[in-house]
Amino acid sequence: MSSSSASFSYDRQALSRFLYDLYDYEPKLLRRLISARPYVCPFDHLERHIPSDAKVLDVGCGNGALLAILLASERIRQGVGCDVNGDALASATKAAERTGRGERVTFRQIGGFEELPDDRFDVVTMVDVLHHVPEADRAQAVAQALRRVGPNGLFLFKDMVEKPFLRRLAHNLDDLLFSGEWVRQVKTAALEREVEAAGFRLLKSEDIPRVFYGNTLRVFQRL
Ligand SMILES: C[S@@+](CC[C@H](N)C(=O)[O-])C[C@H]1O[C@@H](n2cnc3c(N)ncnc32)[C@H](O)[C@@H]1O
Fold first, then answer.
1. Which residue minimizes the CA distance to atom 4 of ligand 1?
2. Nearest residue to 59 (alpha-carbon basis) of 39, 44, 79
3. Which of 112, 158, 187, 197 keeps 20 to 30 A from 205, CA to CA?
4. Would the pLDDT of 3 be above 60?
5. How far does the signal peptide extend, from start to end residue (predicted)?
């Protein structure tokens, strides 16, 4: 499954095909859902903010699709993925190995965000995780992620939009179907204030519509 960075494409269709082939050990429905993700989640936008040779921490990495993409494209020198879900991490480990560069990443099961590795990273990513965290715990979750960002490092935050109503509803229905939760979207303006107050500046702010859904991407840099 290994590929050279020169031949790697971040085009949505190519990413979808890559993930479909990579996760061939998963049951068919899950494999199809993983391979559909690039059409909904803007991995192509996230990738643009990850410098070459970066050391990356993916908070709430799930089945490790982002790290697998970054490994296969030879973008990162080192990665750590953390999640509460042990089954997802087992799948992430297998996917990373199948890129041929599994030795560059480790996966760790955590019981809470305070258990994130006590290390500093060039980039810390949090992709579609915070809306699953109870509202009262969100500020602390973000604070723990920010503590792992090294000097001049980046915090890449991706979640789902609060509006327009129909895109928000699409997200709610999706999570109701797939995770059994009626989630409450992240209040992005409040999040921006929290991250800036922690000593970061907002470098990029994008709302990215995909199919019925709306993504919010925020890129912060430690000052
Ligand atoms: C929608 S999935 C996103 C997975 C991955 N980031 C992606 O974009 O493909 C949300 C993930 O957040 C994880 N999660 C939820 N609460 C968490 C917590 N307190 N600590 C770590 N991970 C958590 C879930 O287990 C799940 O894997």
1. 62
2. 79
3. 112
4. no
5. none
The yes-or-no verdict on residue 11 having pLDDT over 80 is: yes
Give the position of tokens 């993925």. 81
Ligand 1 centre to CA of 39 (Å) is: 19
93-137 pLDDT tens trace: 999 999 999 999 999 999 999 999 999 999 999 999 999 999 999
**Residue ranges making up the domain that contains 142:** 5-222
Contact present, 66 and 60 (Cβ < 8 Å)? no
- Give the CA distances from residue 159 to residues 98, 105, 139, 169, 188, in Å, rounded to whole numbers and listed in that order: 28, 24, 15, 14, 9
Of ligand 1's atoms, which has the minimum distance to the CA of residue 58? 6
| The pairing of beta strand 149-160 with beta strand 213-222 | antiparallel
User: Based on the structure, what is the number of domains in the chain?
Assistant: 1
Number of neighbouring beta carbons within 10 Å of residue 5: 10
Ligand 1 in contact with 32 (CB < 6 A)?
no
Q: How far apart are CA 76 and CA 74, in angstroms?
A: 6
The answer for residues whose C-beta is within 8 angstroms of residue 209's C-beta and 6 or more apart is: 167, 215
For residue 202, give the CATH number of its domain: 3.40.50.150
Q: Is the pLDDT of residue 148 over 70?
A: yes
